[in-house]
Every structure is written in C-alpha cells, then in structure tokens.
Queue: 4 jobs
Job 1
Amino acid sequence: MYCHHFEAKRCQSCHWLYKPYSQQLADKQQELTQLIAPLNAEKILDPVPSSEQAFRYKAKMVVLGTTEQPILGITNAQGETVDLADCPLYPSSFVPVFALCKAFISRAKLTPYHISSRCGELKYILLSQSLHTGRFMLRFVLRSKNCLASIQKHLPWLLQQLPELELCSVNLQPLPAAVLEGDTEILLTEQHLLAERLNHIPLYLQPQSFFQTQPVMAACLYQTAANWATELQQQQGSFNTIWDLFCGVGGFGLHVATPKQRLIGIEIAPAAIACASRSATELGFVDMQFQALDSAAFAHSVAQAPDLMVVNPPRRGLGQQLCQDITRLAPAWLLYSSCNAKTLADDLTLLTGYKLLKVQLFDMFAHSNHFEVLTLLQRQA
C-alpha cells in the first residue's frame, strides 16, 4: 500500500508500512510461534492475510483546524496537524462522507476542541459503515451540550445530502483529557441500530457497542471458529451448552452455536447485549441468555461448566482470577480469541490441565505489529 502521508513522515500510524506485506505477515507468524513455543501446540496453521488497503470500516478522527476550515485527522509527534480524510486504509465510500462532515461542521458552526487551551466543543468524528448494507453510523463527540441544538437544527440538511446515513448521535465527553468518548449518548435519528451481516448471521451495532474495525477479516475469524466447533461436534458429539464470554454483539456465539443449543453470552456493555439478543431472536434461538455482566464476575459466581466456552477478552487478557475459574469449571473445550498474543500466551500458561490443539493468526491490523489469534484447547483427563 502506498500512502503519501507515510512517505512524507506526516503520519506513522501504520508503523510497519515500510515492510513488504509478505514480510509483515512472516514477522507476525514468527512472533506468535515464539510466544506459544513453550505450550507445544499440536498444530500452528498458516496465517490468514488481510487486504492491504481499504479494509477499515470504522474511523476515529480527531477534529482539528477551525470551524471554517475543519480538519479530520491527527496531530502528529512533530505537532503538525494532518488531514487523513484521504487515508488509504478506509474504503473509497468514506471520502465523500468525510467531505460532508467538514461541510456540516462549518454549516452548524461547530468549534473544534483544543486540548491545550481547553476551548471548543467538537472533539471527534466517529464513523462506521456496514459492509452488508453500505449504510453509515455517525457520532459527534462533544465537550458539552452547547452545540447540540445547532447539530439538531442542521441535521436534516446532512440527512438529505447523505441518504445512506442510518444513525446519528452525539456523545458527551466532558473530560479535558484525550479520552475518546463518554457515557452519555444522545440519539438524533429514529433509527438506533446499524445492521450488519457476516456469513449470513445478522448482527447489529449501536453507539458504544464494540465491533471489529475490519468486517471481512472478522467474518473469516468467526467462520473459522464455527468450522472448528462443527468439526468437534462431528467427532465428539453435540454440545448442550455454549458460553460466549466478552461476547460483544454476539459474533462468536451466534456463529458457533445453533438455535437448538443453549447459548449464554456475557458482556459488560448493555448496548451490545441488546444487539446480541435481537440477533439471537431473529435466528430462532429459544434457549439463549445474554446478560450485561462482568465476564470474570460471572464465571466466578457459577458452578456448572458449559461444554464449550468461547472467550474474546480485551488486550489485557483473561487475567489470573478468570483463568483459575475456567480451570475450576473445566469446560471440555475452549475457544480463545485474542488481539494480544503476549497476554494470550500468559493466560494459556495459567490454564493448567488444557492442551493447545490449534493456533491461527488473522491479520486484522495490517501494517502494524498487532494481530488477532484464534486458539482451540481441550481439557486433559
């Protein structure tokens, strides 16, 4: 991928862009192999490559510049303001939307927030697109409600200019620190969900509900987990109960389980749980239970294990207490998806009594040293 911002050293966010993509993938596979070497995995599969550009369907843009000439991008390490509206990581469909966002900022007289002076109102533009429908979710992150009335007044113009805009909201983030979003979300459109569909599984996104930035790779990751689970059941017999911890909007659980199985999904964010429950109902799940709870606290409070446990924790990993509770519960099979191979390796060391059967790398984050990993573990008698 060629990026003129990277070549000019204005933006180095894609810090591995200087490497040929084949070398990036080989380096990631080598790092993963070294980290899990002490675990004696039975099978380390070939990595799943990414598209090299236009794969990010979620943009988090700092709003800079002025009301008359807004900039969507970053302030780099040299203190320079860099407009990234033409970043090649985003699909071409994002370019006209970014242009409309800038026009809207000027039209509604939204003042960009400046951290140093703590003046201004508009901090971030958060834009997501559904791969399935092509429709958008747009969120304005504001310091206060001072600009809310102006956004509401001019929103009909934006909706007319951008009929693909499905959902629009304001998020209030009053802290002077560089925190992406706050707790308060104000919906500005009648529609409050963005519909997505991966591998024929309906998924729904709301503001503040986590979803992968790269839906094509997410679909591949979910389908691989489903394939591994299907193979197990063909060999070992059907699962009665499946848990999906840190379930988000239900991507893993809804792919791995069938409507005839008991599915329990746990996620701390109520918005994500509402989305997962809707998807499960549409798919015909009868015995399903999605709850807005802390996954570690849930596992600590129960005594009966599922047949299959799926975990997809944040970068910090499972941690010692949850690993102890998984070992205590002793599910026969464990699918662990991780975006941090280091904490994954640490957790797998703590999961005593389990054999690592399969490992596969999914390059969710091309041009960086980050990647996703899917593992399958079996409890040893």
Job 2
Amino acid sequence: MNPEILNTKVQEFINQNLKTDINKLLLKGIGFEAVDSKQIIEQIEAKKRSEKKLPTWFNTENIYYPNKLNIEQTSSEITGKYKAILVSGESLIDLTGGFGIDAFYFAKQIKHITHCEINTELSKIVTHNYKQLKADNIECLNENGIDALKRIDQQFNWIYIDPSRRDDAKQKVFLLSDCAPNIKTFQGLFLKYAENVMVKTSPLLDLKATLSDLKHVKEIHIVALNNEVKELIWILKRNFESETLVKTVNIQKETNQTFNFNIDEETESQADYSLPLTYLYEPNVSVLKAGAFNVLSTKLSIPKLHQHSHLYTSEDVVEFPGRRFKIEKKLPFNKKAFAKEKISKANVTTRNFPLSVGDIRKKLKVKDGGNIYLFFTINMKDEKIILVCSKI
C-alpha cells in the first residue's frame, strides 16, 4: 500500500480521469514521482468498477482500492446488505475478509466484527478504508482466518466464510473440495466456535450434492440480482437436525421477489397440469436454481403446462416470483399459422422446446425487441405450441 496514492493531487487526478481511455493516459504519461503510473491506473480501473457495485466506497473520499480482481470477486453492496439482515448478536468473525464489504454490513447488525485477511497488502487497505467509512466496530487481523479462530479460542455468535474460488494457478473453481479453505474439512471446527455459520458459495453448486457434504444446514438462501443468481448462502446451526428451509430471493430495483419452501416439499409435491389459460408465468432464476417446480404449483395453486416446461398458467392473475404475462393468442407451432399473425418483431423465449431462440428467429423471420412476447414450448398433450403474450 503506497500512502502517496492518498495525496490530494493524486486523488484529484484519479477522479478526473475515471472516464479517460487508459491507453491514452499511459501514452501521455502520468507525472507523479512518488507514485508509479501502473498503481494509478490500477486505482482508476478499480474505482470505475466500484461505481455501481460499491457506491458507498465510490462516493467516500480517500478510499484506497485493491486490484480489479479483488473488486470482481467481492460481494456487491446489495448482496452484502441482504446477508446482514440474516445475522444478529454480539460478535461475528469473518474468516476470509477480502475487501470487507460483507463485514462492513455485518457491523451494522452486530456489536463487534473481526475481519481476517491473510494478504498483508489487502488487510492494510481494508483497515484504512474502514477508518474512512467510520466503521469503528471492526477489528482487522492480518492472519489466516482459521489460525485466528484457533488462537482467539472463544465463542462467536456467527462465523462467516467466503472460501476462495481460485486454485493455485488462479483458475476459477466452485466445488467445495476445490475451494480454500475446504468447508467440508473445517465445518466441525466452525460449529465448535460458533452456534451459527454462514457460508457463501458459487451459484454453480448443486444444492442436493452440497447438502450431502454439509451438516446441520438450517437454511439455503439463493440470492439473485435482477434475475441473475449471484450467491448461494448456507446457514449452518449447531446441532440442527430438522428440515432445511430454502429461501429464494430475486432482488430488483423496486421490489424483491421471494419464494420459500422446505427442501423435501418438492419431492413430496405433485403439480397440477393444464392447457394454457388466460395468464402465463415464468419463474425467476432463483426459483429455477432451487428446483422448486412442483411445490410452486401446489403452494400457489397454479398448474404447469408440462412436466418439463416449468411454465405456469391460471385463469385469474396471481402474485408470482417471476415474470407475468397475459396470453393473447395460442398457436400451433407451424410456419403457416404464425405467418397469419404478421409478427416481425418480438421477444422470444423457449422452454422445453427442440429449437433454439436463434433457430426460431431464422425460421420465422422474427427480429428481437418490441412489446410482444413469444413463448415456444410444449403443452401437457406433448404438442409444440406458440403463446403470443403481453407483459403485465
């Protein structure tokens, strides 16, 4: 960490050049003797990436940024705030602190936070930034989190861990056994020192396979942001032996879509089926990731179109964790029937259909966009159909 980067003139230069082409800056040269040009470029690139993802940091003066890879890997403020509402108590230790977004928001709910970061440079950066952010109840330790946990040797209300998903060659990994530290190996240690353990994992993990690897899982939170799954959050509770609750959330600008169910409810539920009625429903990605296909039908009392289509329908409109449409027309899938509708521009979606969106556009000569939504799917009679819809 170079303190000269926090020099007023250097900070002014960084802020003035956030929209400047980096290559032009390098060609022109950056005339600060005490700071290497590459360090300033690194600050500019990292700060630019933080504008939308980390607005509190972006809008706070004299924030020191790590390299852009750290910014890419860190939680967003939005998901950090979500995780914070899940915790309470006097103490939490973050064993893999990183850039410290999650710890910052945990500190708004819990009296004392311990932030562990093995990288000396990053630990210094985070310590400095917390002072700028006035996060006075966070203690930063430049130490391996597991070593710190053993050395401190005390009970915490919570342990939080976001294992590294990069291997020794810096390649991305996602299986628990490939991440560091290995949660499967250390989960007993974690539950020894805390009644509650929160684990953040890749959204690529298979829920059932991971449940077999972890013990005492009380809750799984599938967190999506604007219909893109960002995180899987696993809540482990000491001695918990009951059924795991799955909570899906799709965080949107104006509202959050949620749907919750117990893990065994999906296999125990039997969906109803129907031909398309007046309204059509498409689940958001957090629900799809959860595999809540039958239980969605039974809990909301809406039938599916087909066992494998994962589209739902109803006569009267209902609240739904996903997109809702009014079905304007129901067509068989053939070129002649579609040509009569004279639709040249539409949003195309396929569900359980043999052709891709690209193939359909080419075959039917449909451009992307507009206010018409076309769903190509298979109904309960195994017939290929087109549903012409408007969004509601």
Job 3
Amino acid sequence: MDLFAYTYVGPEEIRRASASHPAGTPIASRQDAEAWLQAHPDARSEGATYVVDLQGRLRLAPRRSEHVACAGGEEVLAAGEIHFQGTGLRLTVAEVSNQSTGYCPDTPCWDAVVLALQAAGLTPPPRFAPEIVFRRCTRCGEVNLVKEAWFVCVFCDADLPAEWNISPRRTLHLGGRE
C-alpha cells in the first residue's frame, strides 16, 4: 500500500508561531488515548486535532491547536479532526475528518488514518466525516475546499483540476520510502 507524505502549505507565520508549541502526544494504545482524553476533558465534547506522523503514529493535540504544531513542524501522512465517545474499553472513534487547511491532505490519506488507529487498538469509523476535497486553483493559486463536487474556484471562478494538486508529495511504501 502506498501512502503519501504531505508538507505544510499554510501561512509561514503560523508555522513560526507553532514552533514554540510541543508536538502532539503519540497515541500507541487505547490506554494512551484514554489518558490523553482524561488530561484534556474538553476533547470529549469538542474533539481533537490529530496528525498521523511519518512513522504512522497517531498524534493528538487540543482541538484549537494548529496541525503543524501537532506534527512538530514535520510532514504528515494525514491530518484533521477526530472525535471520541465512551470511556475505557468502550472508547470508540466516532468521527475523523481530513479537515486541515495547513496540510490539505487528499482523501486517500484515509488509509494512513486506519493503520494508525488500528495500531493504537482503536477501531476506525467507516470513512471520513466530513471528507474534505482540496484543490489549488491553477489560475489564481488559491486553495479551495470543493463542496458538492463543484470544481470551480470561489476566488476567480476558474475550473479546478479533478486531481489533487496542492503541493508536491512524496509516495511512501509500507516497509520503506521511495
């Protein structure tokens, strides 16, 4: 299975400001997730920021954290928001999105999310909710969130490409890098 490494494409001032924040907490087990949720009680109701780092580990940070801070400024395999429900053995992942305007990950990053959640002993939901489609306008250069399959730039009305084009990305193969 091929996974993609996404680079940060958000504002440089956010990257610089995020450098002083600790990276997200690695979650290697259900117990790690429960401990993190106990330390961040607001996350039970509002969710959390997550990334999947290049080692395939889920990392969590409080909901209003920048994804680039959660990732320690590094590339990611996936980024977005995550919501949990329940506690202890009944802890489940209710929803996961790829909503990160800092990394703008393409929808195939779902594979990395599934692997990271399973490695942490958590069952992933069936798919992203919501699933965000990002495209960069080839005319004006702005990043767009495509809604209802309407591939038209909201800034200049140009047609948006059908394929993901936010930035160059590296392909990683399970068991080794390309």
Job 4
Amino acid sequence: MSDHRVTMAEIAQAAGVSVPTVSRVLNGQGHVSPRKRELIEDLLREHAYQPRISRKRPSARLIHVVFPEIDCAWELEHIRGMEPVARDAGVGLVVTAAARIVPGPTDGVVLAATSGSRRLTDELDRRGIPVVALDPAARELTSPTVGAANWSGARIATTHLLGLGHRRIAMIAGSMELLSSRLRCDGFQSLMGDSAWVEHGEFTYESGLTLGLKVLGGAGRPTAIFAASDNVALGVYEAARRLGLRIPDDVSVVGFDDVPGTQWVSPPLTTVRQPLRDMGRLAADTVLRLANGDSLADHVELGTRLVVRASTAEPNG
C-alpha cells in the first residue's frame, strides 16, 4: 500500500475489520472498541489516507444480487426474503450468476455464497458501492456478512443421530472452498472425533447420489448419513432406492437447509433448518441501510434448528 492512493478497503483489511468500521472511525462514530479504533487511526496516519471527495449520487433504485449459480430452491428462498424489503423501499432487484462486473448504476450489491472475484470487489470499492456478503465463502471479508449457525447446526444433526443410537454415521460434505461447508464438517467432527467418516463432494443431488452409492454399497455401510444439504440428501434417497435400502429402516438420513419440498418427499426428510428467507431479508435491509450511511454490525449469524420428520429412526438391530 505504498505506491498508490490507499483505499478504505485496504485499511480495513490491514486492521482486520470491515469497511463500515473504518468509516465509523473516520466519521467519529461509536460502536468501535478503543483498541480497534486506535489501530485504525494509526493505519490511517501511517498511510496518509485521503478520503475521496464525496459526491452524493442519485439513487439508482436497484440492488444487484450475485449468486455463483442459480439452480435450486436455496437461491429462490433468499430472493423471496429480499423481494419484500426491496419492494417496500421502492427499489428493484437485479439477480445475476457468476458476475465479474456489475453493469450500470446500483445502490448496493449482495454477494451470495461467494467472496466475489477480485475484479468485482475492486470495482465495487472503487465505485464506493455498499456490499453485503450473504452466506460468505470465506471469513476474511471486509464487508458486513449475514450467515447461519452452520457449526452448531451440524452438531444438532449429529447429536440427534447419536441420541437414536447410531454410531456408524457417514457425512457427505460440500465443497471445502465454502465456509458453510467447512463449518458443518467441523461441527460433525467435533462430536465424532477420530471415528468421523466424511466423504467430500458438492452441495448437489448428483454428489449425494454418487457418494451415497459409494458409502451404502460398500462393506460396513453406515446406519445413518448426515447430508450437508437437502440436495445431497435427496441424492442419497435415490442411492438407497437403487440399492434396495429403505429409509429409515436400513439407513437414517438427515439433511441441511429445509428447502421447500423436503416435507413432501417419501419419507419426509429430517433436516436442519437455516432461515434462508430471513437471511435474504436481512442482507437486503443491510445493504440498503449501508447505502443510507447507517452504522451496522459487521457480522450477523442467524440460528439453526432441527426439524424432525420420518427419515430418522433407531438403527435396525
């Protein structure tokens, strides 16, 4: 940060805080610990930070929402949470997948399940556009984040299976590139210890089917599977059907998300509910309030809970 005009995002990254936290220090606002405030002030002086000349932009009346891809009910539930917030504020939603640049004017951007490409985040910082990370892919973000209690949610699911008497439990995890997947895996392993059986895949039906066939078709198959998403769990259902296994008589299955439809499959799926609509609602509200210059909490994590249905039971025999 020596040969160019240092940005607020670079100060935030060096201090290990969010951009709004640096902004609060610059504007003399509260809600910053004395230790962090002193560190940020030292960095601002050290790098001779000069704020850009503020020019109040007219509102674009638009929020951009960027998903890595759009292919399941997970994204739809987030959008359903955002839509009434945007409608009440009189702004529109522009939903895109895998965007590397945000075209045209916008009041703010929600980056969902991704930290965004460097090109995109640099552009947003240059344009001074508020950013909120929804279900972020990484911890090291300088923008405010909205997520769910993934670690404790995985422990709830694992505790449920252990309480039923299961000891041979396999987990089919999502990509370790995603923070939510790593936290769910860590929660499972924190209870299973050295006996943790984890198969790494993706948050997809195809991954659940492929790995379900692998673990259920081999010797010493598990009596229960913790699927790291409902899509994975549905793939496990199909794997069990192909192998002639019954759920929950031969194998219990727990999912994660509680997307619409999990209560209608046969048997209805026991799953960990994360409040997807509430997360979308909070992300949209946060980005609008940032656009308005409000001071907000840097990171918010919403609770998860177990929804017990008919896909889990005591191990047979």
